[in-house]
Amino acid sequence: MKRYFILIAMLVAAGNVQAQELNARVTVNSDRIEGTDKNVFVTMEKTVTQYLNTTKWSAATVATTEKIDCSFTINIIERSDYVFKAELSVQSRRPVYNASYTTTLLNYMDKKFDFEYSENATIEHQQNSLNSNLEAVISFYANLILALDFDSFSPFGGSVFYREAQHIASLAQSNQQWTGWSSFDDDKSRGTMITAYLDESMRPLRDLFYTYNRKGLDEMAANSDRGRITILNALPVLNDLKQVRSSEIALQMFADAKLDEIVLIAEKATAEEKKSTYDLLRDVYPGMSQQLAPLKK
Average per-residue pLDDT in the chain? Predict the structure, then answer.
């Protein structure tokens, strides 16, 4: 599988129109909110969908068939006039080469998502300013989705998007009323998250992400044993990364996206490989033993 990237200057010179990168599905769930007037949630859903799918997030272009499938689910917990308290679930996927199967790259629940929104308000992408926490959070995760996707296709290919997510986090942190950004008092904040991904000591995790997806999963259609062995042989780096101070959130995000899939892959390995994989993952993720249980059989 290939993604074809053309610099903006080349596109302009050729007279081509750049395609947006995301194919996002947005759901706003307001079941917890009493009242019959749901119009604001309908317009919120449309506004966020339009923002994600019509914004050009980079100078690269992606064919329509190669847009990144992703989903954003905004679960509204409380509402007070124009102020909303919510949780945001974000997922992204990419197809596996020569297969009908898609693999999860991001599966994350953000539980500190407070924002202001008025009915029919629009969101406009601006490079160096943020008008709302809604814009900041959605833009942050759009860049994280792109970073992970590009990392899965080429070694450290998502660096520009991680840096843009860091830039957004830096801008958002200047507004103390916007929750979920501080790196100082929250080890699961967006600021902590992006700092972890850009930490030099965490580069082996990004390298693992590339090896797992491009050299492992993408090879399985041609040779399932070779693809599986490549993936299982790459996993021991997780144990090394566990010793890194900033690793906790990034390692957990890797597990949330990949652990169930790793178990399915390892179930077809030899008894020795299964035991080795189980022992490794149990040490790295002691609280997720139930998900690892099939490897004990």
Answer: 91
For 59-91, the pLDDT digits (tens) are: 887 888 889 999 999 999 999 999 999 999 999
Of 79, 72, 90, 83, whose CA–CA distance to 30 is shortest? 79
Q: Say how many C-beta atoms besides its own lie within 10 A of residue 75's C-beta.
A: 18
Which sign does the torsion angle of CA 235, 201, 4, 137 carry?
Answer: positive
Point out which residues pair with 114 in neighbouring strands: 85
Whether the Cβ atoms of residue 249 and residue 188 lie closer than 8 Å to each other: yes
β-bridge mates for residue 108, sequence order = 90
Of 114, 248, 240, the closest CA to residue 183 belongs to 248
- Give the count of alpha carbons within 13 A of 77, CB side only: 10
CA 186 to mean position of chain CA atoms = 19
Give the separation between CA 217 and CA 4, rounded to whole angstroms: 20
Question: The tokens of 189 are what?
Answer: 């904040």
* Helices within 154-188 (DSSP H only): 159-173
> Running DSSP on this structure, what letter comes out for residue 237?
H
Indicate the burial class of 200 (C-beta count within 10 angstroms; 0-12, 13-18, 19 or more). Answer: exposed
Write phi, then psi, for 243 (nearest 5 degrees): -80, -10
What confidence tens digit (pLDDT) does each residue in 7-23 have?
333 333 333 445 789 99
**Strand positions, DSSP E, 30-172:** 68-80, 83-95, 102-116
